[in-house]
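Handout for the seminar on molecular recognition.
Each group receives one record of this type.
Step one: identify the two inputs.
Step two: read the structure output and locate the region that could contact magnesium ion.
Step three: write two sentences on what you found, then compare them with the reference statements printed after the record.
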Amino acid sequence: MTRKIVEIYKIKRQSLMIIKLIELVEIKMPLVSFFETSFGRTYERRIILTRVADKENNEGWGECTAGETPSYCEEWTDGCWSVLREILAPMVLDKEIESASQVWDLMKQVRGNRMAKAAIETAVWDLEAKKLNVPLWKHLGGTNREIACGVSIGIQDSVEQLFRKIQTELDVGYKRIKIKIAPHWDFEIIRQVREKFGNILLMGDANSAYSLSDIDLFKRMDAFCLMMFEQPLAHDDMLDHSKLQREIETPICLDESIRSPEDARKAIELGACKIINVKLGRVGGHAQTRLVETIARENSIPIWCGGMLESGIGRAHNIAMSTLKGFTLPGDVSASKRYWHEDIIEPEVLVTENGTIIAPVKAGIGFEVKRERIDKITVRKKELK
Ligand code: OSB
Ligand code: MG
């Protein structure tokens, strides 16, 4: 009996992960074309990548999805750099970890900072899946190997430019078009898009540009039969969204407001949304995403994978999470070439002519990380041991 316990104990110890190194690498990459939302225009991304390694030199990669400025949410590249370096990395380094699903708990004394936490947590998931020699999407429990893709098209300088972009994406085969909306770029634009493109799957993302005083505008926009309005009201609101949802037919989808499984439960209970956009960074990583997915699925709330203009590494993680059963609507995860002249993974993310991405067969995130390419565009790096 005792011997058996000792044996089990040994096996358990052998499978423990101990992270010996966390490397932070900030890269700078210009976007193929600018991306404009109601909170501003981005020409170039500054992205923090995370590389974790154990003592056997298994490695995993993650990406911090924070923007360059605290405009989408309060996290931003420079803030994440210091919280990763000074606070979060020391909480994970040298700790005995039984599975990647526990990494979140190691950092639980820290409030918020979910994108920074996810940068480490998702890298450990990649490492664990590589160690087990399974694709990350399978390791997460994913079932839909072929995922449906949509595109997110920013605010343009003219309607003609918007028309051209939409036509290009429809020609490629994308299944759903999301356009960004804002008070100078809403009713009349959507009307013209509907007139030109007819019955396509179309939705609008406001990134919090409106308030309840705009309720009549939203009622009028019901006429366009959009799939959903994404985050029309304040970034941290649920109550006003529930009031708006009661007044309009078009489903509301929450993005910014859902930062945790608990937020998802409360939003559903309040009737603040009928659909949820899940972003890996915004909810704090793969373990939290799985909890949000379960809550949504049990309440018959469709979810889809949002994007944060990720490099190939973040994109690969998004592909893996999109294979979970509850992700039933086309997401914002699309081909590398829509964003980058040259991505940092190989192969780059490709989309089939049916507007889908096929999850990879290789272990972990399933793409090779092009370290030489990363080194060329690195602006700073730091190894933490
Ligand atoms: O609200 O979904 C959003 C990009 C940056 C910040 C917020 C959002 C977005 C997108 C782009 O819509 C999604 C993508 O193509 O990566
Ligand atoms: Mg959004």
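Reference statements: The chain has a mean pLDDT of 96. The CA atoms of residues 10 and 311 lie 39 Å apart.
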